[in-house]
Design goal:
By secondary structure, the protein is mainly β. It is built from no helices and 41 strands. Strands 7, 10, 12, 13, 14 and 17 form a 6-stranded mixed sheet that branches. Strands 27, 30, 32, 33, 34 and 36 form a 6-stranded mixed sheet that branches. The termini are far apart.
């Protein structure tokens, strides 16, 4: 029986003998006095290294393993191939690598085995090749579908909620709507492509911004979602507040700021009060309501006009002469005119006929019928001589000494 021993990474050839006959693969027949020489050839078997590319596409990915080029290098020696490769290797540490591949795929770590058992790896990209090794290393790339998020945001104050609006995203090619509902809307796995973004519902009295996106640049209301991208788009909503302005116009010497104007909401109780031109009563943000209008203060000898209210140049609804209704989106200006009425002059004079009484003994008076304001005094006294009074109707009176009877009044200039 013929035997050999040595490293396992050599392949043993067939025995060949001279001077004797082989009776089996490793048996030789010897005869008396014979000299037999037997030899066997040992052929070196280099280590083998195989690289395999695996791809997990799921339902939305479509890439083939050949889209990646895998490689292994050891000094000047290298192996590479599209989708995988295999070849003889030298003993030592080999560096594993791969090309980036298509967008939207995440590549996992290299996993290496030697005849079904874990191979020695110094780290995630280096494998140790020993004599006799038959190492297989694989890397798996998994498709990560694109994601899309839509949100609506209220900017500033206002009566509405962001959830009053409905957000949707529709693939412009297939017509498939991937998002549809109130804010916020999330889609974590959609097909790559262009999507039309829509905002519906909500209050008509809100202005909307253009779509603002991260992860992609929208073109109007269309955004392109690419492989592996995470796109987030939002739209901003700003309430178009109703506005109310109170204005005083005047003739005569007094300035319009001499009066205080006010408006108070019936439902909200909101009170605006101030002088014309002040921020307190100029272009003030209010909620929809019906406001009671009023004016106070100011000097004498002015007559209040009627309130006039316009909404962007058109008549605003006024339930009566001192109330105005302000609705969503309105911009109402209410104006009242103060008209100067020059003061009148009034002189009261008594004439005495007969007797010994003098005119100074007669007390004269005038009472304004509109408001009861009065003046009185003895005839020819300063209080009833060229007195400054408001225009209007006056009741005249006279109190005479005992024995005198007042006659009818005679007036000049009226």
């Amino acid at each position: 029986m013929l035997f050999r021993s040595g490293p396992t990474w050599y392949a043993t050839g067939a025995w060949a003998c001279t001077g004797g006959s082989l009776t089996g693969a490793a048996e030789v027949e010897l005869s008396e006095g014979s000299t037999v020489v037997c030899s066997v050839t040992q052929t070196y078997l280099p280590p083998r290294l195989t690289l395999v590319k695996l791809v997990v596409n799921g339902t939305l990915g479509s890439a083939d393993a050949s889209a990646w080029t895998v490689s292994a290098t050891n000094g000047a020696r290298s192996l590479s191939g599209a989708g995988g490769t295999s070849g003889d290797a030298v003993v030592g540490t080999w560096t594993l690598g791969q090309s980036a591949g298509p967008a939207g795929y995440a590549s996992g770590a290299w996993d290496c085995s030697d005849r079904g058992f874990p191979a020695v790896m110094s780290d995630g990209t280096h494998v140790v090749v020993a004599e006799g090794s038959e190492i297989v290393c694989s890397s798996t790339s998994t498709y990560i579908p694109p994601g899309l998020t839509l949100t609506a945001e209220i900017v500033g104050d206002g009566p509405a909620l962001a959830t009053d609006w409905r957000l949707s995203a529709t693939n412009v090619v297939t017509g498939v709507r991937v998002l549809d509902g109130p804010t916020p809307q999330y889609a974590t796995a959609i097909a790559a492509g262009s999507y039309r973004l829509d905002l519906t519902g909500g209050s008509a009295w809100y202005t909307t911004s253009s779509w603002l996106c991260t992860g992609a640049t929208p073109s109007g209301s269309v955004v392109a979602v690419t492989d592996g991208s995470r796109v987030s788009c939002r739209v901003e909503l700003a309430y178009r507040w109703p506005r109310l302005t109170l204005v005083v116009t005047t003739t005569g010497p007094a300035p319009a700021t001499a009066w205080t104007v006010s408006a108070q909401g019936a439902a909200t109780g909101r009170l605006l009060s101030g002088t014309t031109g002040s921020t307190a009563v100029t272009d003030v943000r209010v909620l929809p309501d019906t406001f009671a209008l009023a004016i106070a203060g100011g000097p004498d000898h002015y007559a209040d006009g009627a309130w006039s209210c316009l909404d962007r140049g058109l008549p605003a609804p006024m339930p009566d002469g001192t109330r105005v209704s302000v609705s969503d989106g309105a911009s109402v200006v209410c104006t009242i005119a103060e008209t100067y009425v020059p003061p009148a002059h009034l002189t009261l004079v008594a004439e005495v006929s007969g007797g010994t009484a003098t005119t100074s003994a007669v007390t004269l008076s005038a009472v304004r019928l509109a408001d009861g304001r009065s003046l009185s005094g003895a005839s020819a006294s300063p209080t009833v001589t060229d007195a400054v009074v408001d225009a209007g109707s006056y009741a005249l009176g006279a109190v005479a000494p005992l024995g005198y009877v007042p006659e009818a009044w005679r007036c000049e200039g009226a």
